[in-house]
Structure formats: structure tokens, C-alpha cells
């Protein structure tokens, strides 16, 4: 039986799991709480509390996906499970790592692709570069084909702007020249599923839609869809923001996604934020879009 072991089975991996379960796969997902474990079990995923022994699961896994974000002490999966991974990974085990386009750093709104040098300008971006390198080193030692997915800002069900727009708390922060790339979570799922189906040698994929856009445009379009007034514009330099929120504006770039189309044959369900927001509104979504 094809079996996916998913480390840090969170938002993106939970969108992938139904695609695999529908094809008869077994999906094992790690989580850090009993409450989340019960939620995963209800979705057909076999939960394991992160930190518990996973030698048996790894021995049965035909595919391994890791979504856990690194910190200043490194990658949590490698910190916890490196000996077991070294023992069980091999050339026949597909390995996927969900990274971020933050590894490219700031390019002043210019285009980047998978060949662009990694020059992160934030601490989180540097952690991701280090984590990618650590997983690549593991893949080289074990012979496992590593597929790195560099995700743009993720949105989807539970992560849309409509609640804040309705409540009048949405903000249109304007920084001249600022653009972000984004991706709907269901398009992340189909890209990873396409890579799994293709197999082959490991590579790197940028996972983003076709339309990098200023963040204020997204909020403005959400307001237009709701028939509400546009939230007032706020100058970035003068706006009151948390350090975390402000750090999202430290980098501006347009990310190319040609490889997921040419290599994997993916046709995005949501090729731009407009299509994505229309979909979320039809689902009556109500949380916040994230550009991270």
C-alpha cells in the first residue's frame, strides 16, 4: 500500500491528504496535541504525536512529506528523527519538503525562478535556506529523491480576508512597488500530488499563482466583492504594525511558476487572487489572507 508519512501535518498537508485517501492511500500525520490528533483521525489520517518513535511508520512509508517550519535551532524533524530517517530513506522513497519563496530574499519587484540565487533578507528566510540544505544533504546521503516546494503566501478556506473587511478592521497598507506572490492551498495540494504521481529525480518547484500583486489590491477586491467601501489606504512608513507584520514587507518579488506547468502539467484552479477570492466568498470563508 502506498503510504505517506507527513511530518507537521498542518494546513497544506491536510489539503493534500483527501486527494491521496481517495486513491486508497494510507496517510500518517504527526501533530503536537491530542486535540489536533482527534481532528486528523476524523479526516481519515492516522495521527502520531510528534516526538513519539516513528521507525515502524518510516519502514512502511513509500512517501515522506515534511511541512514543519525551522527555527533558530534548526529543522525540528531532523533534530528529532534524523537517525530514523537515515536508516529508512532510500532511492525508492519519495521525499517532499515544503519551503517558502522567502529563500530568494528581496528583488525589488523583479522576477525570480528556481535558478535564482538564495539571498534571504529575513531571519525566517535564512532558517529556510539552512533547512533546505540540511534536507538536501540527507537526500544525498540516503539516495532519496528530494522535491522542494517553495510556497508563496498561502490562502484558502479559513484564510481569506472577508471577515476583516466585513468588520471594518481590514487595512490597505501601501508600500510603493511592493508585490507578493500567492497560492491557493488547493493548488499546493495538486502540485504536490502531481509531483508524487510523476516521481523521478528530486528537483525544486516554485508554487505560486500567475499574478503577483500588491497586498492592498487583494483587500480592495475583497471589499468590491462584498459591495463594501474600500478600506482607507495607509502609508507603510507611518502605519502602526507589529514587527512580524512589518517583516512581510521587507521583500518584494514576482515569482515564476513555469516549472509546475511544464514539468508537472499542472493547470492552476486559481490562477490569480481574484479567482481564489471568488471561490472563498462562495464558501463564505471568513479569516485572513497571509503573505508569508
Automatic annotation (TrEMBL):
Keyword Iron: no
Pfam family, one: Epimerase
InterPro entries with a match to the protein in the record: Epimerase_deHydtase (IPR001509), NAD(P)-bd_dom_sf (IPR036291)
Keyword field: NAD
Matching SUPFAM superfamilies: NAD(P)-binding Rossmann-fold domains
Domain NAD-dependent epimerase/dehydratase: 8-208
Name assigned to this protein: NAD dependent epimerase/dehydratase family protein
Species in which this protein is naturally found: Jannaschia donghaensis
Source organism phylogeny: Bacteria, Pseudomonadati, Pseudomonadota, Alphaproteobacteria, Rhodobacterales
Amino acid at each position: 500500500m502506498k503510504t505517506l508519512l507527513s511530518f507537521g501535518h498542518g494546513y497544506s498537508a491536510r489539503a493534500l491528504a483527501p486527494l491521496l485517501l481517495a486513491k486508497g492511500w494510507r496517510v500518517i500525520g504527526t501533530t503536537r496535541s491530542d486535540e489536533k490528533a482527534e481532528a486528523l483521525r476524523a479526516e481519515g489520517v492516522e495521527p502520531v504525536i510528534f516526538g513519539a518513535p516513528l521507525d515502524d511508520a518510516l519502514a512502511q512509508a513509500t512517501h515522506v512529506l515534511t511541512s514543519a517550519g525551522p527555527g533558530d535551532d534548526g529543522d525540528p524533524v531532523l533534530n528529532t528523527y534524523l537517525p530514523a530517517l537515515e536508516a529508512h530513506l532510500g532511492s525508492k522513497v519519495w521525499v517532499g519538503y515544503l519551503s517558502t519563496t522567502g529563500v530568494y530574499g528581496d528583488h525589488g519587484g523583479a522576477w525570480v525562478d528556481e535558478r535564482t540565487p538564495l539571498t534571504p533578507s529575513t531571519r525566517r528566510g535564512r532558517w529556510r535556506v539552512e533547512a533546505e540544505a540540511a534536507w538536501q544533504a540527507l537526500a544525498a546521503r540516503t539516495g532519496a529523491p528530494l522535491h522542494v516546494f517553495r510556497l508563496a503566501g498561502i490562502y484558502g478556506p479559513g484564510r481569506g480576508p472577508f471577515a476583516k473587511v466585513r468588520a471594518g478592521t481590514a487595512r490597505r497598507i501601501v508600500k510603493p512597488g511592493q508585490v507578493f506572490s500567492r497560492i491557493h492551498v488547493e493548488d499546493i495540494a495538486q502540485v504536490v500530488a502531481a509531483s508524487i504521481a510523476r516521481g523521478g529525480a528530486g528537483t525544486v518547484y516554485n508554487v505560486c499563482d500567475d499574478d503577483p500583486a500588491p497586498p492592498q489590491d487583494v483587500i480592495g477586491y475583497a471589499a468590491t466583492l462584498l459591495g463594501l467601501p474600500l478600506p482607507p489606504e495607509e502609508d507603510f512608513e507611518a502605519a502602526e504594525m507589529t514587527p512580524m507584520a512589518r517583516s512581510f514587507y521587507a521583500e518584494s518579488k514576482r515569482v515564476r511558476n513555469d516549472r509546475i506547468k511544464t514539468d508537472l502539467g499542472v493547470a492552476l484552479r486559481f490562477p490569480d487572487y481574484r479567482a481564489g477570492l471568488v471561490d472563498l466568498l462562495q464558501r463564505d470563508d471568513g479569516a485572513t489572507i497571509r503573505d508569508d
